[in-house]
Amino acid sequence: MNTPCRKAFTEKLLELAQKDKTIMAVATDSRGSVTLNDFAQLLPEQFVEVGIAEQNAVGIGSGIASCGKTVFVCSPSPFLSGRSYEQVKIDAVYNQRNVKLVGVSGGVSYGTLGFSHHSLQDISVLRTLPGLTVLVPCDAVQTKALTCYMAETEGPMYMRMGRNAVEQVYSENETFTVGKAKQLCDGTDLTLLAMGELVWPCKEAARLLAREGIYARVLDMFSIKPFDTEAVVNAAKETRRLVTVEEHSILGGLGGAVCEVTAQHYPVPVKVIGAPDGHIVAGESPEVFQYYGWTPQGIADKVKDWISRIH
Amino acid sequence: MEVEALKKKAAEIRRQAIKMVYQAQTGHIGGTLSSIDYLTVLYYEKMHFDAKNPQWPLRDRFILSKGHCVEGYFSILADCGFFPKEELDTFCQFNTRLIGHPDRCVPGVEMNTGSLGHGLSGACGTALACKLDDTNCRIYTLLGDGELAEGSVWEALMFAGNYHLDNLYAAIDRNHLQISGKTEEIMTLEPLQQKCEAFGFATEVIDGNDISSILAALERLEHISGKPKMLLLDTVKGKGVSFMEHAVKWHHGSLTKEQYEQAMMNLAEKESVL
Predict the structure, then answer these.
(1) In B82-191, which residue ranges form alpha helices assigned H by DSSP?
(2) Percent share of chain A, pLDDT over 70
(3) Residues of chain B found within 8 Å of residue A69, distances taken between Cβ atoms
(4) Is B123 an interface residue toward A (CB < 8 Å)?
(5) Is 90 exceeded by the pLDDT of residue B213?
(6) Residue B230 to residues A40, A99, B193, Cα–Cα distance (Å)
(7) Could you tell me the fold of the domain covering A182-310?
(8) How many helices (H) and strands (E) does chain A have?
(9) A55: chain B residues, CB-CB within 8 Å
């Protein structure tokens, strides 16, 4: 059954917080959008409403964390990563607080609401903060596993999720190691590297390409920081062409991270697929995905076109 | 500590702060001098802490939100035994941990600040956590008056009132000056007491350079429950050094040898009549 990552997150968080009273959730009038209503109702003493004040939410969360608590600050990612950037930098990261920043409705989840509600720069701005773990899960199974990781592991972290129900990529009980990419299939002609909601379309694109005799390795780069440099270098050495696919600006996100690695360690051609550095078309997110070719067929077509041009 | 002893301690801390700024040839001395009397009362009379165990969970906390005024703060932490006094000579020197703002790598520092408008949110979160844990810890924080133009301060004020954080003791170093001039000419802050009260704070407006007044005001506030507290410290920027008092140019600056000697003489004269 397809489940939105945010729902998988809140179910797991509630389960963890019922067992561990030091886990707290901070919301910014976002209990509906994050799906924290059950948490707020069942664990009121572990729930803090800050109101529509993302800067304060991160500051408050960091202060609470200074007293030994594990604090999940939950808010739509465009505001969490944009409005409170300096609080993330100073209060959470510089102070090394045990604060987990959970951005929901990332990317173009709020596709019809315009640029103010798109979160297409969050990865690029946050992955440069030293010591901030950055995670982008692709399905409910991975989201639950990463939620457990965040609760168990000390330090500031950011996890970005979309709003929609997503295809299940992983079987239940799959395990993940933060800092290690997850290989979904192997191939010899190129590697597709993806994060978040575009992992599943890449997996399907690889199947379409295989029918045409193009064999793609697919890597789920859910751990943007720490980043699996080794997996990228190996992909460059073994498949010689890399294609990054992300629901994020083509500037500074997954594509940027991959190019930083290849340019310094093993230069190969890289194609970056993502949101253009400009106007983003309005639409529900499936429509936007379709428009930009963030679908199995769209990705396969872009890959074929690119390969034909770089030969 | 008795009032007279606190006054002498404040004078000693002022001398140390001036020395640090002179040695480093940099520092935010004006706001440091205006806030030293308040910090002296907190650390030598009010706060419970253990310098040998800085992370003692039941300690009272102090957060310097106006983090640039760090010279007096570092001097007090060293004097209280959090780290060796000799280390103060490394202030703002290459590879020091005593940088120009509070940093938690320095024992006793509770929160890294520097950019303004962060301390009150941190203090509110800490105060809320202490209440949830049923501890009696008090959380103190000091803001600058110019800092109040930062919107995040008002988000935190709203939060403190909403959650009735009566273990929160916020204070504003109301020296009426900021780097570009008079606060009221840059961005109107008044009526500040009414604004704080409207946000749900119990307030006191006092002479923030008078030890007895600070002690009495804190004592009055300690008897109020259900409300966060706000001290509006009416202070003099550059307090204690004649040529720095009320002078905006000493928001930040370095001293010549002659200025340093004059400043130390000023402070010694004032101390001699205590």
Answers:
(1) 119-132, 151-162, 183-186
(2) 99
(3) 129
(4) yes
(5) yes
(6) 30, 28, 9
(7) Rossmann fold (3.40.50)
(8) 13, 14
(9) 121, 151-152, 155
Burial class (CB in 10 A: 0-12, 13-18, 19+), A211: exposed
* Pairwise CA distance, residues B261 & A13, whole Å: 61
Query: What whole-number distance in Å separates Cα of residue A28 and Cα of residue B247?
Result: 42
Q: Which two tokens stand for residue A290?
A: 């379709």
List the CATH code of the domain at A3-166. 3.40.50.970
Residue whose entry in the numeric block shows the structure tokens 């951005």: A103
Burial class for A74, CB neighbours closer than 10 Å (0-12, 13-18, 19+): buried
pLDDT for B273 beyond 90: no
The residue of B111, B140, B150, B162 whose CB has the most chain A CBs within 10 angstroms, and thus the best one to mutate to test that interface, is B111
* B68/B49 Cα distance (integer angstroms): 23
At residue B270, the pLDDT reads: 84
The string of pLDDT tens digits covering residues B38-67 is 999 999 999 999 999 999 999 999 999 999
Tokens of residue B186, six digits: 């840059």
Domain ranges of chain A: 3-166, 182-310
Contact between residue A68 and residue A20 where contact means Cβ atoms under 8 Å apart: no
β-partners of residue A135 are A159, A223
Residue A133 predicted with pLDDT over 80: yes
B128 and A63: CB-CB below 8 Å? Answer: yes
* Same CATH fold assignment for domains A3-166 and A182-310: yes
Amino acid B140: pLDDT? 98
With a CB cutoff of 8 Å and minimum separation 6, the contacts of A132 are: A88, A92, A93, A126, A156, A157, A158, A225
Q: What's the pLDDT score for residue A300?
A: 98
Helix (H) or strand (E) holding A42: helix A37-42
Q: What percent of chain B has pLDDT over 90?
A: 97
CA distance B25 to chain A (A): 26
What domains appear along chain B, each with residue ranges and CATH number?
3-272 (3.40.50.970)
Given a contact cutoff of 8 angstroms between Cβ atoms, the answer to whether B82 and B93 are in contact is no
Any CB–CB contact under 8 A between A95 and chain B?
A: yes
Q: Compute how many other C-beta atoms are within 10 angstroms of the C-beta atom of residue B39.
A: 25
